[in-house]
Design goal:
This protein is mostly helical and about 300 residues long. The protein is built from 14 helices and no strands. Its main location: membrane.
Length: about 300
């Protein structure tokens, strides 16, 4: 392969991994607070359809992204009310949210299926974008790719160096002890859930306004589930999420790469690669369940009701 092909592959890997980074970082924050939200797929679809419709009607991509984040947060708020306030089973509630989000997005977007938009374009940075190889890899992306890097750095810093990060971890490890020393457990958990919803909504906007600037029912294609597996695969560490998202992103485009090299495998088989990779990762993790349990927040999935 020549250098141009390698550059294009790496460029596509970064783009394909971006929605996974956004979803997984948001879910990591949510799970760090002790809340397991399996509704990522539903929130992703709602964010995608709301963002697309808003951008199509108003002509503003910025407003589309903002409303997609609000749509994702609204879904997350519903999940939070059920699982945090009413203390319902988080796994069942998350699955219900996924089903509800899929149906709601299909209903809302029924009149917009197949409509195309120009989409959010890549930014051209004078001089830097013209640098051979590096210019295309680092300085020719759309704003949401760069925003994903900023969010990664912010989340990494929060959990390593701030009292807020310490409070989130404390709530996720032992909510009773955190409550006893005055940390508002319910407020922290609501904030984490809403943040995760906003991140997933932004990822939905990325799909419908950047990656494939149009709306089609079920366009998330399982990315929400892949991101959930990615959080566990990364042991709830932000830096590993970045690397894992790019790995899954590369697996997603590998079938296109191999077709370009005339590799004799049916394209549908190659298209299954990211999902096969997800299954293999989960099987590998289950082989060392003790290590995975040690990395996970201790109170994840457990409801908490403060003493009155």
């Amino acid at each position: 392969m020549d250098i141009d092909l390698i550059t294009n592959i790496l460029y596509a890997t970064l783009r394909t991994g971006t929605p996974l980074i956004l979803i997984a970082l948001g879910e990591m924050v949510c799970e760090k607070s002790g809340v397991l939200n399996l509704g990522q797929e539903g929130m992703l679809l709602v964010g995608a359809v709301v963002g697309f419709i808003a951008a199509y009607v108003t002509g503003s991509y910025g407003l589309g992204v903002a409303l997609a984040m609000i749509g994702g947060s609204a879904m997350a708020l519903l999940f939070g009310w059920l699982s945090i306030t009413l203390a319902t089973n988080q796994i069942a509630t998350g699955l219900a949210l996924t089903i509800f989000g899929g149906g709601l997005s299909a209903f809302i977007g029924a009149s917009y299926v197949g409509i195309g938009l120009e989409g959010i374009q890549s930014i051209y940075i004078p001089v830097l974008s013209d640098i051979p190889v590096i210019g295309r890899l680092l300085f020719q992306h759309d704003p949401l790719v760069y925003l994903s890097f900023v969010l990664f750095l912010a989340i990494y810093w929060v959990f390593r160096s701030t009292r807020l990060g310490l409070s989130i971890r404390a709530v996720g490890e032992n909510p009773e002890a955190a409550n006893a020393i005055g940390i508002p457990v319910q407020t922290i958990r609501y904030g984490a859930v809403l943040f995760g919803g906003a991140m997933t909504g932004m990822a939905g906007a990325y799909l419908s306004l950047v990656y494939t600037p149009m709306w089609t029912e079920g366009m998330s294609a399982g990315r929400g589930w892949i991101a959930l597996a990615l959080v566990v695969f990364a042991s709830w560490k932000a830096e590993r999420i970045m690397l894992g998202a790019w790995l899954f992103g590369f697996a997603s485009i590998l079938h296109l790469v191999l077709q370009g090299t005339r590799f004799e495998v049916h394209p549908n088989v190659m298209a299954m690669l990211p999902y096969v990779a997800t299954i293999l990762v989960l099987v590998w993790l289950s082989s060392d369940a003790a290590k995975t349990k040690m990395s996970a927040p201790r109170s994840i999935g457990q409801p908490f009701k403060p003493m009155v």
